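Checklist before submission:
- one chain only
- standard amino acids only
- sequence pasted in full

Submission:
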Amino acid sequence: MTILEVKDVTLRLGGKRILKNLSLDIWEGHIHAMIGLNGAGKSTLANVIMGLNGYTKFEGDILFEGESLKGVPIDERARKGITLAWQEPARYEGLLVSSFIRAAAKDKKESRVREVLDLVGLKPDKYIDRAVDKTLSGGERKRIELASILAMEPKLVLMDEPDSGIDVEALERIFQALQYLQQNQTTILMITHSLAVLQQAEHAFLLCSGQLADKGSVDKIARYFENKCIPCFEPTPEKIALELAHAEQ
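Returned file contents:
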């Protein structure tokens, strides 16, 4: 069953088409990955789905559970069960970790806060009364953000570079959290440049120049990493550099 349908979406920013008649389906209860060169439109698509400021005026349509998201504000999308995990998690000076997690949690009990912290590998007694500020590392903030998502129990999670700025241990905890989310009927779309992250998915999309270049099994899409090559609709400096490097090997 399809939970999210992107239908012929075109988005212009600064007079330039970033997404170009892009169509794809996200299957309910599955873990999906999206890869592509820098500038391919991956994060832009996530911003459009979430309805962030500056990303709402697009052509085409996006359907969530069969209903159009056009004109639906970001807070309403969140209430429908869509959330976005940022590549660089925000800091909230003075806001305690416990308050941050409770803000959108379905179960606001302290026991639930402790449970989700433990699930992402953070000792509750050490973190529950800390502030979400600059005293936390990027990896700690990323795991705290993930703990808040676990507490939300969303229907669809968009994850932008979930491995950015974290160590191997933290990444393993994030992979465990992905499985936990899926077991609890959450659908996941991960944007990544990492083969390790891609391999956590069941299905993948390959974007190039704002268009869908390919889709299918993870093994099929992983060939991009192996061959250092990508089906490309338009030559870009990064694409040309990759092709030259591959030709010299």
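Reviewer check: The first helix runs from residue 42 to 50.
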